[in-house]
């Protein structure tokens, strides 16, 4: 980890504190460009926006997919206060961002929660795969 990595992680942690002060879950992220400058910053706004997807990592991935060409996106680094959740990780992958550096692991985050607090993820029932012959028809040949 470089000095710049630590500096940008500290800024992501500041953004998390700003999110919490604004009534949202305490998560913040920023995207650094190939030249080392900050391209964009985001805070979690899932409560104030009444949007369960308003995670800073997802918002930055969407911004990058809209605003950056593939080569530039691949040369960026996202700094985030906590390891991205599955939803955000998928968006980061699809947006083509090159690197993610995070402060807290999911285990560290869980250790900071009070007993009985809302879990980080909510388990759900899952079944499948099913109906392959039918499901493949709209997909086949697309990729």
Tag the structure with descriptive keywords.
single chain; 143 residues; alpha+beta; Cytidine Deaminase, domain 2; four-stranded mixed sheet; 4 strands; 42% helix; globular; catalytic activity; CMP_dCMP_dom
Low-confidence stretches: none
Question: What name is given to the CATH topology?
Answer: Cytidine Deaminase, domain 2
Order of helices and strands: HEEHHEHEHH
Question: Separation of termini?
Answer: 37 Å
Outline: globular
Mean pLDDT metric: 94
Structural class: alpha+beta
Radius of gyration: 17 Å
Question: According to CATH, what is the class?
Answer: Alpha Beta
**Total beta-strand segments:** 4
Q: Strand percentage, roughly?
A: 15-25%
Q: Main beta sheet: strand number and arrangement?
A: 4 strands, mixed
The number of distinct structural domains comes to 1
CATH architecture: 3-Layer(aba) Sandwich
Structure description:
The chain has helices at 3-21, 56-67, 70-74, 86-95, 106-111, 132-139, and strands at 28-32, 38-43, 77-82, 99-104. It has 143 residues and is of the alpha+beta class. The model has no long low-confidence stretch (mean pLDDT 94). The protein has one domain: Cytidine Deaminase, domain 2, CATH 3.40.140. It has a four-stranded mixed beta sheet, sandwiched between helices. The longest helix is centred in the N-terminal third of the chain and has 19 residues, at 3-21. 42% of the residues lie in helices and 16% in strands. The chain contains six helices and four strands; from the N terminus they run αββααβαβαα.
């Amino acid at each position: 980890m470089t000095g710049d990595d630590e500096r940008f992680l500290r800024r992501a942690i500041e953004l998390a504190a700003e999110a919490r002060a604004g009534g949202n879950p305490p998560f913040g992220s920023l995207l650094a460009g190939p030249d080392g400058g900050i391209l964009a910053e985001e805070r979690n706004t899932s409560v104030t926006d009444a949007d369960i997807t308003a995670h800073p990592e997802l918002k930055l991935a969407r911004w990058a997919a809209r605003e950056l060409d593939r080569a530039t996106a691949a040369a960026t680094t996202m700094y985030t206060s906590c390891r991205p959740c599955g939803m955000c990780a998928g968006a980061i992958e699809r947006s083509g961002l090159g690197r993610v550096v995070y402060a807290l692991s999911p285990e560290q985050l869980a250790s900071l929660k009070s007993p009985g607090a809302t879990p980080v993820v909510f388990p759900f029932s899952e079944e499948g795969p099913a109906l392959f012959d039918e499901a493949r028809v709209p997909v086949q040949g697309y990729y």
